[in-house]
Amino acid sequence: MGGSIAAIGMGLAVIGAGIGIGMVGSRAMEAIARQPEAVGDIRSNMILMAALVEGAALIAIVMSFLVS
Amino acid sequence: MCFSLTAQHNHDDHDGHDHGHAHDQHEGHDHGDHAHDADSHGAAAHGDEHPTNACGMSAHHGEFDPGELAFHHVSDQNVYNIGPWSFPLPCIMWVPGEGIDFFSSGKFNGDSHGNGTKAYKKYVLHEGLVQRVPDFPTDELVDIGAHSVVAVKETIDGTEKSVSYLCYNGTKYKADDRSTLDAGYFGGGLTSFHDLSITKNVLSMGIVVFLLGWLFLSIAKAYKRRQGMAPKGVQGLIEPIFVFIQDEVAKPFLGAKWQKFLPLLMALFFFILGLNLWGQVPFLGGSNVTGSLSVTFVLAIVAFLVTNFNGNKDYWKHIFWMPGVPAWVKTILTPVEVLGVFIKPLTLMLRLFANITAGHMVMVIFVSLIFVFGKNGTSTLGGYGTVIPSALLSVFMMAIELLVAFIQAFVFTILTASYIGAATEEHHH
Questions:
Q1: Where are the domains of chain B?
Q2: Most buried among A3, B55, B89, B303, by the most CB within 10 A?
Q3: Percentage of residues of chain A with pLDDT beyond 70
């Protein structure tokens, strides 16, 4: 029982991270389209932001491993 | 110092053994040396019956479980498997109060799955990992027969755990996993012995460090010799990557002090990148070093120590007494900021571990599709039909993982740089 609840929690965390990383990616694409000359700066900041969003999801996933 | 997931799995009986006729007493164990391919787990005609051995233990292996196979393949091992060949590694075992034992894992006479047929100094080899049997009657090298260690699922304190037992001369002995320092959260805890061996991961790390050292020393020599000239050969491969990390990571995040931290950032980046790529080379054992929590834990500790030892007055002031906010907000903000100091390296550790481990596991599971659809060898059409889709999916996944290897090394470096940069930044209020 604990395992299936943890699996639901893991899925919710992944939905959250997916929305977050999707927004980071879409805005970065828009920014690159507006200012193609700033592509290098935008790319590294995009990866940084995606990594930070991912961090929250990872903590949730590890927590769900621990309770299951 | 092990946080590794000590995953055990149950399919103790592998292909090649004829399970066609019912054998209630699995006596004799006369199937010692089958040379079979490392990827052919479970590809046999397992019947429905569960054979029990002389101690009445039965390994549940009716269904092929790709998840457990994947866990087994990402865990650290005391043997190095390359295809069907198994290379022994030195074992250094420490039993508190009894001293240190030093021997080769070749003593166990393991097959290509890492299941030994011999016990030595109360140690046995099961699924590539050395386990200790504290109650074993003798320290001598004795024959225990093939597949005499069985992992069974037991419910301890409400959680299901995998516990291994050795059957020797009709008696059942409990086999301990090695100790881990995770207080049991990841399935380990302190047991009767500590494994300080040169394991597969340690050997891989040594090889990668040696290769990187050789590569960078030869490049450094080339710069001295060819001063003022255009880079040539391997210089031309590494220089753009080096300059990229220097210009995109070190300079923007660290400001004026970038030269002080450049060696650390470069070491982190190339160490992680080298190990990520080494684990991805097909037919080289696929060691999962950066997907081992022990390794990423130490890397995160390095980032944590460098950040906090270099933190200036402003950094600590912003953690404990944030300037410019009302006092009641500070009572909420201070605990959050203090937690943040520890959560930052924690996420560094988990991000690298989870990304690399997930990649390795997905690879194994894509290969396992063949056995899932082949129904453990009973459905030939399903098995052969899945070979090509499975191979295509694996190639696709390896291409993605190649990208992930670079991205994760870059992300670890850029986040470390941003944490150090935030801690050493000069504020002008």
A1: 38-199, 203-424
A2: B303
A3: 94
pLDDT value for A30: 95
Interchain proximity B354–A58, CB inside 8 Å: yes
CB contact under 8 A, A47 and B414: yes
CB contact under 8 A, B343 and A59: yes
Model-level pTM greater than 0.90? no
How many degrees, rounded to 5, is the angle at CA B13 between CA B11 and CA B16?
130
In chain A, the domains with their CATH numbers are 2-67 (1.20.20.10)
pLDDT at B188: 65
Give the gap in angstroms from C-alpha A57 to the nearest C-alpha of chain B.
10
Choosing among B411, B412, B416, which should be mutated to test the A contact, i.e. which has the most A CBs within 10 A? B411
pLDDT surpassing 60 at residue B26:
no
Query: Residue B255: its pLDDT value, please?
Result: 85
- Among B153, B177, B132, B125, CA closest to B5: B177
pLDDT of residue B32: 37
